[in-house]
Design brief:
Elements lengths: L19 E5 L4 H17 L4 E6 L16 E4 L5 H12 L5 E4 L5 H9 L4 E5 L1 E2 L2 E2 L8 E3 L7 H6 L20 H13 L8 E5 L13 H14 L4 E4 L6 H9 L6 E3 L6 H8 L4 E4 L3 H8 L3 E5 L5 H4 L6 E4 L30 H13 L2
Parallel strand pairs: 1-2, 1-4, 2-3, 4-5, 5-8, 9-10, 9-12, 10-11, 12-13, 13-14
Antiparallel strand pairs: 6-7
Amino acid sequence: MSFILNRTRKNSSAKREFSNILVWSSMGIGNMVNFLPMLRALRDRYPLAKITLLSWSDASVFELVEKDIYNEIKFINKKSKISLILNFIYLIFSTYDLLIIKWHRNIWVARFISACRKAYVVGHVSSSGHKCDYDDLIDNKVKLIHGKSDKYQYLNLIDDLLINKSDYEEYLKIPPNAISNITKLFKENDLKEEDFLIGFHLDVGAAQPYKQIGFEKWLNIITRIKKEVPDAKLIFLGLNEDRVANKIINELSNDSNIYSFLGKLNILETTACISKLRLLVGVDSSLKTIASALKVKSVVPYGCTDPSRSAPLESEIVVVRPEPEQNPCEVFGPIDPNKCSHQSCINRISADAIVNATMNVINNC
C-alpha cells in the first residue's frame, strides 16, 4: 500500500505553546540515555502538555525513562504491515500539535510525518550525516552539528522552543528495587562495594561486527589486567549468549575473582550494577553510555566509528583508537564495505593500548 508523502508546511511563526506532543523515540538503550535530557527539558518547558512517545523499539529501551516525563508510549510492530497502516490511520485522525522527530530516512517514518497534518514538525534534516529524501516534510529543520555528541544533537531539536539547553545533563535514576536486587546478588557472591570492581562487556551483537574484538585479544587484555591488579574483582555483564565472555570465563574458571552475571540482570539491574563499579571495560555499546551517565569511567576501543557522537570529551568514556598512522574509516552507522572490511579498523587496536588505557584509569582512581 502506498501513501502520498505530502503535507502543508507550517511557517516559523507556529505557536510556541503546545498541548499534545508526539515524539518519535525509536532507538536503542544507549541512544535513549542520550535522548533523556531532551525529554526532561521538553517536559519542563510544557509541564501540562500530553507527551506521547512513538516507537518500534523493544519495550526494555524505555525502562530507564522516568514515568513522569511522558504520558504514554505507543508501540508499533514494524514487522507487521497491518500495524504500520493502522498507526498511519491513527495519526491522520490525531490532534498532535507538535511532532519531534529525530530520524526520518525510513519510508514509514516519513509516512507518519505526512499523516500528522495538524502538527508543527521539528526534525533533523539528515541522519548520521547522510542526506535525507524527506526533508521537505519538516517545518523546523535542525542540522546535525559535526563533532557534537548525540545528547547535543537531540537537545538541538528543541532549540526553537525557548529552552535553555545548558541546564540539562545526562543522569539516570535507578529504582530502589533494582538496587536492592544487586545488593542481594553481591551478598550472595560475597562481593562488597568497597572491593575494586571492574566490569567487562565484550559483545555488542552480530549486527555490528565492526565493533567486536576476538577472544584471543580479550583474553590477553584481561589476563594482563588481572596480573596488574590481582585483588580486583572482575564482573562480566551482558547477554547469556556472549560467546567471547563465556569462553574467557571458562578459561579462567579456577580464578575466584571472576564473576559471571551474563544473562542474570535486566537493564535496570545492569545499571545498578554498573553504578557500583570502579571501571567498565568493553565494546562500544549502550553499557558504556549508561556508565558515563552514572559518572563511572569506561575504557572503550573504537574502530571505524567516530567517537565524537557517542563519546564526547566531557564524558567519562576513555576512547582507545588505532594508531594515528592507521587512520580508521570515521563512519557512523552502517558500514560501507568499500570503506572498511568490517573488523579491519577495530583489529588495528593493540592489546597494549587497551591495557595501558585501563591501567591509567585504575592508577588514577
